[in-house]
Design a protein that fits this description.
The chain is of the alpha/beta class. The chain is 35% helix and 17% strand. It contains 8 helices and 8 strands; from the N terminus they run E-H-E-H-E-H-E-H-E-H-E-H-E-H-E-H.
Length: 220
């Protein structure tokens, strides 16, 4: 089992990821901009039978195997700048999608091509960097039911990418390699389309699932 920090773990997506990872048996620490807020979130989730660490984001990131960043796009640069010298050899997993309110149903990728490439530039070449969990509904993650959604995982570091794919089954998800970090643009863009689908078809958290992948992991 891994030691994992979820940066921004008091938000909706962060809470769902914390819940799924902790239930899978990982040693999970909730990070927040305010240590008191992280503590309150950990105490709240104790009602689910979960024992969680808690700390300010920069402290939560220290000494972990994996650091998962779950913050809005507008907070991405500042958050990554805060933790980049703290993560050491950890795999950093960024979930950021470049949603730009109020037009969140319109694909608006940044000039760099995707939020993933912006993040990589901030973290620098020495950090093992992966992106994932772009297209999974936060409120479905924060539950115990099965989720009909695949998780695409992107990185130029194949070993790190495979490690994150391997986290997914314990979370009740199927992780799939999506290839290089540049390909993260597709999953980032797809989030705006899924928001549109939710509104248009009155869906409760639409997701994606890939078919006819004969050598892919089994669906949980």
């Amino acid at each position: 089992m891994a030691s994992i920090a979820v940066i921004g773990g008091t938000g909706d997506l962060g809470r769902g990821i914390v819940r799924r990872l902790a239930k899978a048996g990982h040693d999970v620490t909730i990070g927040s901009r305010a240590a008191e807020k992280a503590k309150a979130a950990a105490e709240d989730m104790a009602s689910l039978g979960l024992t969680l660490g808690h700390a300010a984001n920069e402290d939560a990131a220290v000494g972990k195997d994996i650091v998962i960043v779950t913050v809005p796009y507008e907070s991405q640069a500042n958050t990554l700048g805060l933790i980049k010298d703290k993560v050491g050899s950890a795999i950093v997993v960024d979930t950021t999608v470049p949603l730009m309110p109020p037009k969140v149903m319109r694909v608006q990728l940044p000039a760099a091509g995707c939020a993933a490439l912006e993040a990589k530039a901030i973290l620098g070449e020495g950090v093992r960097f992966v992106t994932a969990f772009h297209n999974v509904s936060a409120h479905h993650l924060d539950s115990d039911h099965a989720i009909e959604c695949d998780v695409l995982v992107f990185s130029d570091d194949v070993e790190a990418r495979n490690t994150v794919v391997g986290l997914c089954p314990g979370m009740g998800l199927r992780g799939l390699s999506g290839g290089s970090l540049n390909n993260s643009a597709a999953a980032e863009a797809l989030t705006s389309i899924l928001i549109y689908m939710n509104k248009t078809y009155k869906a409760d958290g639409a997701g994606i699932r890939f078919t006819n992948l004969t050598e892919a992991p089994a669906i949980p």
